[in-house]
Each structure stands twice: as C-alpha cells, then as structure tokens.
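Q: How would the structure tokens look for this protein?
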Amino acid sequence: MLVLCTHAAGLGELVTDSLTADLKGQISYSDDSAVMITTNADAARVGRLSYVKNSFAVIGSVPRRQSLGQSIGAITRELSRWTLDRSRRPFRLMFSEDGQLVGVPGGSRTRLESAIGRATGGRFQARGGGDEYWTIARRDLDEVLFCRRIPAPRRRQPAKGGLAPDVAELIVNAAGRSRPGDVVLDPFAGTGALIRARTQKPFREAICVDLGYRTGSVQLLPELARDKGVRRLAEDARTLPSLPDDSVDLVLTDPPWGEFEQDPAAAAALIADALFSIGRVLRPGGRLAMLVARRLAGDVTRQWRRNDLRIGRSYDLLINGHPATLLVGTLDKTAVLDGTG
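A: Here is the predicted structure in token form.
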C-alpha cells in the first residue's frame, strides 16, 4: 500500500525515521510536512500513529498539469482503471494544494463526483460520515494524487504546558527499541508526557521526577498517577538522591528551556548538573534522548561528552515554532577507560 502521511511542520527527519521503523516501509517522497511511504502495514495501523496528522491511501496519480482543475480532469478520465471498493458508502470530496484546502471549478468537481459514484456505488454527501476522497498536490511532487483518507481515532490533547503527544511519541521512537525489562526515567517529567508515550509499550518501571510535585505546582497525568508501574519522586533532577548508580536503562527528558529565554547560561548550567546525575544512574549502554533549545545544543553536547555520553544521532526540530535539537545517545564509559575520550 502506498500511503501519504502529513505531520506537523518542523519534524520532518524525525517523522521519516519513525515511519520507516513503525511501518517497515520504503520512503519515496518527503517534504517539511508530508511523507509518502510504501508499506505492508494495514490501514488501521497507519491510522493509529499519533504523530501523523492525516494519512491517505493513494489510489492513483496523474502527472501534474498547469492547474489543479486540469489535473482533476485527468484523474476523472483515469478513475475507471484504478481500484476503488464497491462499498456503496456515501462519500465527499476534498482538494488540497501545498497543504491548504482549495476550491476547484464546479464542472471538474461534478464530473469527478459522478465517476466516483459509478465506481463505488455510493452517493456524494457534502457533510457527515462516509468516505473521504482527496485530490492532493504538493509543491515538490511531480504528480497529483487521488487518495482515500484513512480513518483515525480521536487524538489526545496535550496537558497544559506539557509536550504534545505526537512529539513525545517521536522522541520515544528515536530513543531506540523498547524492551519489556526497561526501567525508564524522566528527571524533568512535569505532567509526564514522555513517560505516558513510553508506557504505551512494554516496560518494567517508569520514574517521574519533578520538584513541582512537592509543592503541588505540577500534577502528574491521572492515568500515570493510577499506574502502579509508575513511580513519582518529588526531588531535584540535579542530584536524583533516591536513585542508585547504574539503575536506569532509558532516560527520556525535555529539560525546562522556555523559561530561560533571557538567561541561557542558567539553562545550560541546570542541564549540565542534571547530566552528571543522569550519567550516574544510567547503566552502561543505557540510552538517553534529550530535547533542548537549539541555541544550547553546542554547550549541552560538550556536557554529554564530559559525562561519558556518546551522541548517536541529533535532529534539528521546530517545537511550537521554537528551534530545538533532539540529542539521542548512550552511556559509554569505555572511551574514558581505553583513553579515547
């Protein structure tokens, strides 16, 4: 199945890597907010991916014409050659160009409606349920796609001040293969968005640390508060006094950086202290994924190295319009032991 997936802008490479891993597919096109992938995964699997805004099963395509109306005419002529389910379900039409919904000439639309009705046995319905057929043009794509939108469950809304669920899932994916025996830590957990994303996969224990739990200024998500596999610690990420050495397999974290807009040196110092404790509690070979402001990435990278943390991959992202960098790596003390650090 050929699928077009759209996603939030600014996450491109991270989404591409996640889709390749989740769908075991081959990427044929990508831009800043869309990816086209060939996969053997079923449509329901694609629709459940929280970091995908909309997904479309590609039914066919035509070379891009001078106008979208001309491309729609070509799609109408080709439609009888393509495979559409004889579902007899009502349907509606949508037209998108470069990520924006657009209008098309009435005659082109009416002829396409009639062709779809003949192929599916369904009737056009302007509103309500039924199938959605989309004609999609992307700026850097030489073809115009005719697709059926894949239904998706209702998306979770981010907690106030918390990381968006789609970004959290992408960070979890970037951290590498999830293992049932993992002990997972977020030393700046806040409401627990990253831990919630990780607990959708097998784990042994998850630990949320935040000083705000002590004063009640931060509340853990209710589903995490009820989960017996999740431990909440109201303590300082810079020391992690309750956690013994070599006790954690995976650290996922988004240290505070928005509140340090006017004082990046203070943010860098906070992260440096936290990295010392993270390096202490991680087991050798343990993994770390950390989201930081892009302007801090150079300083933070140097702090990783000082704490025996080796960066395997980095991603430049836009998070709510703010430049950010995701660093992903492992604890590797052999570089120091063998003199290569």
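Confidence is low (pLDDT under 50) at residues 336-341.

The two ends are 47 Å apart (CA to CA).

Upvote if useful.
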